[in-house]
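Running low. Any example?
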Amino acid sequence: MSIDFFGAAAGGPPGPPTCSAKGCTAAAVWVLVWNNPKLHTPDRRKTWLACAEHREHLSQFLGVRGFLREVVALADWTEPPAPDERPTEGS
């Protein structure tokens, strides 16, 4: 399933993307890319969105657990292709 941060996905919220911090309704400006190595394959990536105020807090939360992989400005974010859409070796 592809996620559209702007709410166009089925069942997605209308309007611009918002921060993932509990109770925050501020506009998201950062994408925190993470995975839990105990649950996910190394190539699996999950995302949280963060406003400027919560970027550091959410990054620390993921970082101390060893989950944080990268932080990217939302404006620069491009979702990687799904595993079944990636080119195979030799093609």
User: Anything to note?
Assistant: The CA atoms of residues 4 and 53 lie 23 Å apart. The radius of gyration is 14 Å.
